[in-house]
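This week, think about what follows.
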Amino acid sequence: MAMVGSITGQVYERLRDDLAHCVLPPGQRLRTNLLSGRFGVSLSVVREALTRLAAEGLVVADPRRGFSAASISTADLRSLTEAATGLASLCLPASIRAGDASWEQALGQSWDVVQRTTLIEHGQLSEAFAVAHAGFETALMSACPNPWLLRLRDTLAVQTQRYHRICVALAAVEPDPRPLLHDILVAALARDTNNAVTLIERSFTANLGRFLDVLERHPDLIPS
């Protein structure tokens, strides 16, 4: 049984990554027979992995139509950002309180990556920068001692990543987000919790505005 669980876990992780990176785009039907052949596993393993992903909101299960990748919408993006902002207001203060020298070092290293990563490529916001930005936020929260909060944050981060993948190349690049991220870094290292929370909420709001603008200008990105 342990082997079956391990195989299911591997398929779950690969599907989760494909959904996060929009290899399996929002709204696409997920045919269990095709996925079974792709991964070389039984139909029951694929169904179990998809059921787990449905519990996280990445997959929709329909008794008649089977499984499909969760769709996206401007309403969902607003709700997702609201939830992520509320969770950050819990995780970040806890992380700042518990953060030690190794947390400070990891945070500094993640900021170095943000600084070194090209912001604009071919006149568009760089996908690599979006990855670096997400890594910086993860480092900020990483010292939070509550595993449930971090688990919930990870679930929301994967959902958010789908919007990043779809929107980042078309998103506005002004204003440059790096000064705000630097201010968050300074506040966190100074243990200025209130200011750090205020600033990260501002960062989330800025990203929401960028991606709402993309979805409203390109309604074809939203599956009908």
